[in-house]
Amino acid sequence: MSNKILEIQDLTVSFDGFKALNNLNFSMNSGELRVIIGPNGAGKTTFLDVITGKVQPTVGRVLFNGNNLKKTPEYKIARMGIGRKFQTPRVYLNLTVRENLNLVCNRNKNVFSTLFKKPQSTEQRTVAGLLETIGLEAKANAPATLLSHGEKQRLEIGMLVAQSPDLLLVDEPAAGLTDEETENVGSLLLALAESHSIIAIEHDMEFVRQIANDRVTVLHEGSVLCEGTMEEVQNDPRVVEVYLGEVPE
Ligand SMILES: Nc1ncnc2c1ncn2[C@@H]1O[C@H](COP(=O)(O)OP(=O)(O)OP(=O)(O)O)[C@@H](O)[C@H]1O
């Protein structure tokens, strides 16, 4: 058995004849934190949409832990262990941080026991552990609406992690964050990377430098332009060219 968590083979996605992804090949090992960058329109979001089953390949295939995801509905792919964090946080604003986490931690229990029984101490420990991981212990009892944008991002990442995904997909987690929050979210992803496989799509190069300890993949016009360490990628003339000087030194 290979330890490839994800393999994408000859993938093309056409929208009315326009190839958002064009014969793309990609693979990553279990346990990797892979950062994907690329200029606007490179196909990054479509790439995540295909992995989660939101969009079907026109040609090619996506293998998750060796299983072809062809025609598998989104909810089943999520159950198979792929969790996605969207750009805008999707937390319950009128619930507290702890209640938001409790909801996902209890999702697999039956409704009756969730409503009428006190949580078991092991469940409480899970929520406590998550609160610590995402650095929101002090705000556990605050309604999520009072959190900053960055704190909401961290809460949502915690809610995803509570579902123990094998592969975590995060779409521009640093978008719209202050420098301090960007660093907090980066540290959180690095901590999670010790026990999860993660794909992060990102525009903010400062953030990419913080989290890109493993390989970086550059997408351009729906294909993989190059792959390597952040340093290799940044110094690749093809990358500099497609970003037209956008990549800061
Ligand atoms: N449903 C769709 N119908 C038609 N064209 C689409 C559709 N979804 C995406 N595209 C096109 O496919 C290309 C890739 O889009 P995608 O959103 O995947 O790029 P991206 O790298 O995520 O861009 P950005 O960085 O701007 O978010 C774009 O040219 C986009 O306009």
Give a description of the structure.
The chain has about 250 residues and is α/β, with parallel strands linked by helices. It has 2 domains: about 5-80 and about 165-240, P-loop containing nucleotide triphosphate hydrolases (Rossmann fold); about 90-150, no CATH class. Helices cover about 35% and strands about 25% of the residues. The chain has helices at about 45-50, 75-80, 95-105, 110-115, 120-135, 150-160, 180-195, 205-210, 230-235, 235-240, and strands at about 5-15, 20-30, 35, 60-65, 65-70, 80-85, 165-170, 195-200, 215-220, 225-230. It has a 6-stranded mixed β-sheet, sandwiched between helices. Strand 4 and strand 5 (about 65-70) form a beta hairpin. Helix 6 (about 150-160) packs parallel to helix 7 (about 180-195). The chain starts with a strand and ends in a 7-residue tail after the last helix. The model has no long low-confidence stretch (mean pLDDT about 90). The protein binds adenosine-5'-triphosphate (ATP). Adenosine-5'-triphosphate binds near residues 38 and 44. The site of adenosine-5'-triphosphate has 11 residues, from strand 2 and helix 1.
CATH architecture name of the largest domain: 3-Layer(aba) Sandwich
Bound molecules: adenosine-5'-triphosphate
- The main sheet orders its strands as 6-7-8-3-9-10
3D shape = globular
The CATH topology assignment of the largest domain is Rossmann fold
Global Rg:
19 Å
CATH classification, class level of the largest domain: Alpha Beta
Structural class: alpha/beta
- Give the amount of beta strand, in percent: 15-25%
* End-to-end distance: 40 Å
**In the residues, how many domains can be counted?**
2
Low-confidence stretches: none
Mean pLDDT: 88
Sheet having the most strands:
6 strands, mixed
